[in-house]
């Protein structure tokens, strides 16, 4: 073999010092990695079923799904990692995925790839092999590849790579039994899964100088690492700052020599080392594709492909988007969720049965009115907190989660990102921002966390501002659609005003905020009919999150309000003084003074405020022009406390205060202008 040429067989010998022995006792650990939209979550759900827990990765707010299943007589823990394209992270989610591989040292890593894009995903496979990680390659979505006329010889690919390669169609379960067999071999066998060919595929360096530098840094490394020393050397030469700090801590006095070697290697290079390493792996991947696959012979046809093409073209994609919004949000969430289901739960269940019974029981058992107020009456934990959370917000959130799961499972979301990428660039965002912004219609707090998928800080700040200002959460949106659906003109005014605010503020933010513009790339999965079990499992997981995370907040807010009403301050309670301070503002935009309480509720929870406006409308106190003005102002009003805290954690205190300092006066200014404009034009609803 030529000097500087590294075979995969050689790399398999170059295991990390701290590799876990295959005979380790206890629960085995399997991590699923891969690019977004390749079927990782579907595979995770197929393996784990309902035994799933979602939690934040330590020290971050990125969520990690963990589940368990039985493999023979042993238990196996499965971890669904965030999407990643390589071991050189760009987004926060990629950093978390890599940290998980380094710190938890899974017994097996399942890399899921899209068979249609195998040539683009194999470079990551080669990098994982180079890192000495225990890998099984899962070639997924083979049915779509077959429709394109592609043929992938997984057995030949397995021989060339020297790792197990399993073909699957995860949405139908095809190949999963074989995958379990290979997992069984890898976890509990002798570790020799496949026969390694004598002459495996090789990765020839683009730069001989850089190849020598890799060997030089590798020779200087003395510490123990989760990845092979060769992989660590390449990451260091690629200026991986996080790994550089880890190496500095492990190498001690030897770090200075390593740093000098890195500086010498980088001087005079025409391209960044990361780019050169990628070219090496891509050339090797192209060679693998020539050996083990045949290119597509035809394009996909049929109704599904035509619909997929229509979805990403502006002329046809925008009408399709309007249909999705009309059917999914207006009819299902607005009419059915906020209308039929809320009426059923609020009027018949709570107002007609639960509230009278609980109130009477509490008044008989507890003689003190002050204590009674904690549980029942106007601001009680049960008659306000539980009622709002279960009778008003729950059906709206549940219907939204169902719609979002259908959109997600169908593959429409990446196509929507492609459709609006050019439009989003006007406001400083890329098409990838559609993910947190659409999720914001479910929960702004969750969506603020998801802004971590965006590449640049500039893009994350703009997305955070727009989420806090102009994206109503599912409860707000459901109430708005429910209250305004009777008047198409009123609903149109709300849509136009909030839409103009979104565009204008986004555009101005993109001009004010300096920074690097984000590139846009996204994997587009096949367009499929949503699978009922997937839709229900995703909706169930999110509803479980709602009950565990949000319901306690509703109850806590009720307690805070009760405490605020008990604290005396110059003849009134603290709560009453805040409401008195808000009354001039609501009066200035033409609203009844009772809406001041709803806006205060909205600060604690956006959906709490929306439910308060719903109550006022039900009592006949909020209708016509004031109703439209209230809906617009509440949409643009301050983010709730939970979203505020997450904004502070993600963007920092200074940025959060700047966002909030802009939103508060801006919302009232827009409400004031809208109220007087509608009256000046003589608009009536």
Keywords:
685 residues, alpha/beta, Rossmann fold, Helix Hairpins, 3 domains, seven-stranded mixed beta sheet, two-stranded antiparallel ribbon, 63% helix, elongated
Could you characterize the architecture of this molecule?
- It is elongated, with a radius of gyration of 28 Å.
- It has three domains: 6-202, Rossmann fold, CATH 3.40.50; 204-274, Helix Hairpins (Orthogonal Bundle), CATH 1.10.287; 314-680, no CATH class.
- The chain is of the alpha/beta class and 685 residues long.
- Helix 24 (574-588) crosses helix 25 (595-604).
- It contains 29 helices and 13 strands.
Estimate nothing, just give the exact number of structural domains: 3
Structural class label: alpha/beta
- Supply the number of helical segments: 29
Question: Could you give the distance between the termini?
Answer: 82 Å
Give the overall silhouette.
elongated
Mean pLDDT: 81
**Spatial order of strands in the largest sheet:** 3-4-5-2-6-7-9
What is the helical fraction, as a range of percent?
A: 55-70%
Radius of gyration: 28 Å
Low-confidence runs: 1-25, 56-61, 191-200
Our estimate of the beta-strand percent is 5-15%
Q: Major sheet, described briefly?
A: 7 strands, mixed
Outline the fold blueprint.
Blueprint: E1 6-7, H1 8-13, E2 28-33, H2 40-48, E3 52-56, E4 63-71, E5 74-80, H3 92-104, E6 108-114, H4 118-130, E7 135-140, H5 142-147, E8 151-152, H6 154-161, E9 164-167, H7 176-188, E10 202-203, H8 208-220, H9 229-237, H10 241-251, H11 255-266, H12 273-292, E11 293-294, H13 303-311, H14 314-365, H15 369-375, H16 381-410, H17 412-425, H18 434-440, H19 444-450, H20 457-470, H21 474-484, H22 488-512, H23 532-566, E12 568-569, E13 572-573, H24 574-588, H25 595-604, H26 606-618, H27 624-636, H28 641-651, H29 653-680
Parallel strand pairs: 2-5, 2-6, 6-7, 7-9
Antiparallel strand pairs: 1-10, 3-4, 4-5, 8-11, 12-13
Helix pairs in contact: 4-12, 8-9, 8-11, 14-16, 14-21, 16-21, 16-23, 18-19, 19-28, 20-22, 20-29, 21-26, 21-27, 22-27, 24-25, 25-26, 26-27, 27-29, 28-29
């Amino acid at each position: 073999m030529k000097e500087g040429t590294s075979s995969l067989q050689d790399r398999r010998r170059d295991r990390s010092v701290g590799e876990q022995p295959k005979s380790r006792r206890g629960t085995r650990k399997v991590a699923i990695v891969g690019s977004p939209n390749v079927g990782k979550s579907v595979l995770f759900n197929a393996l784990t079923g309902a035994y799933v827990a979602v939690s934040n990765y330590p020290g971050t707010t990125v969520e990690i799904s963990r589940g368990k299943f039985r493999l023979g007589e042993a238990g196996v823990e499965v971890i669904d990692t965030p999407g990643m394209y390589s071991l050189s992270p760009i987004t926060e989610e990629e950093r978390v995925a890599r940290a998980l591989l380094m710190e938890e040292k899974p017994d097996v890593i399942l890399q899921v790839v899209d068979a249609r894009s195998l040539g683009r995903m194999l470079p990551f496979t080669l990098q994982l092999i180079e890192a000495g990680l225990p890998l099984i390659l899962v070639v997924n979505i083979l049915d779509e590849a077959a429709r394109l006329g592609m043929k992938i010889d997984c057995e030949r690919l397995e021989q060339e790579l020297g790792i197990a390669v399993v073909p699957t169609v995860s949405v139908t379960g095809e190949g999963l039994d074989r995958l379990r067999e290979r997992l069984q071999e890898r976890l509990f066998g002798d570790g020799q899964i496949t026969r390694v060919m004598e002459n495996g595929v090789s990765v020839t360096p683009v730069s001989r100088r850089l190849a020598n530098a890799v060997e030089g840094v590798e020779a200087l490394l003395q510490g123990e690492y989760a990845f092979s020393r060769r992989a660590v050397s390449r990451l260091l030469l690629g200026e991986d700052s996080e790994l550089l700090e880890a190496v500095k801590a492990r190498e001690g006095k030897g770090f200075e020599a390593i740093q000098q070697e890195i500086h010498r290697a980088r001087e005079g290079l025409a391209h960044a080392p990361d780019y050169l390493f990628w070219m090496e792996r891509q050339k090797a991947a192209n060679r693998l594709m020539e050996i083990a696959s045949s290119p597509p012979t035809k394009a996909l046809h049929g109704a599904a492909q035509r619909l997929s093409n229509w979805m990403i073209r502006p002329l046809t994609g925008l009408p399709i988007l309007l249909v999705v919004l009309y059917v999914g949000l207006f009819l299902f969430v607005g009419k059915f969720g906020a209308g039929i289901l809320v009426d059923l739960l609020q009027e018949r269940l709570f107002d007609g049965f639960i509230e009278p019974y609980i109130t009477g029981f509490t008044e008989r058992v507890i003689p003190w009115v002050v204590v009674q107020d904690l549980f029942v009456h106007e601001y009680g934990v049960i008659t306000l907190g539980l009622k709002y959370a279960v009778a008003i917000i729950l059906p709206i959130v549940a219907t939204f989660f169902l719609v979002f799961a259908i959109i997600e499972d169908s593959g429409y979301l990446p196509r929507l990102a492609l459709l609006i990428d050019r439009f989003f660039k006007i406001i400083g965002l890329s098409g990838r921002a559609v993910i947190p912004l659409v999720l914001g219609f479910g929960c702004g707090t969750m969506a603020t966390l998801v802004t971590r998928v965006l590449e640049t800080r500039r893009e994350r700040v703009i997305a955070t501002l727009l989420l806090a200002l102009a994206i109503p959460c599912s409860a707000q949106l459901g109430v708005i659609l429910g209250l305004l659906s009777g008047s198409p003109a009123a609903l149109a005014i709300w849509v136009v005003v909030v839409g103009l605010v979104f565009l204008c503020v986004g555009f101005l933010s993109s001009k004010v905020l300096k920074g690097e513009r984000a590139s846009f790339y996204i994997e587009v999965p096949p367009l499929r009919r949503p699978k009922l079990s997937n839709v229900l499992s995703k909706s169930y997981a999110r509803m479980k999150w709602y009950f565990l995370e949000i319901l306690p907040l509703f109850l806590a807010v009720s307690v805070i309000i009760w405490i605020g009403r008990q604290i005396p301050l110059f003849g009134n309670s603290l709560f009453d003084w805040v409401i008195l301070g808000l009354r001039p503002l609501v009066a200035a935009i033409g609203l009844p003074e009772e809406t001041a309480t709803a806006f205060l509720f909205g600060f604690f929870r956006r959906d709490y405020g929306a439910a308060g406006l719903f109550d006022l409308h039900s009592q006949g106190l909020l209708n016509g022009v004031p109703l439209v003005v209230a809906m617009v102002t509440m949409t643009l009003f301050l983010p709730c406390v939970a979203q505020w805290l997450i904004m502070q954690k993600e963007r920092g205190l200074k940025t959060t205060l700047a966002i909030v300092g802009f939103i508060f006066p801006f919302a009232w200014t827009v409400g004031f202008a809208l109220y007087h404009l509608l009256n000046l034009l003589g608009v009536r609803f």
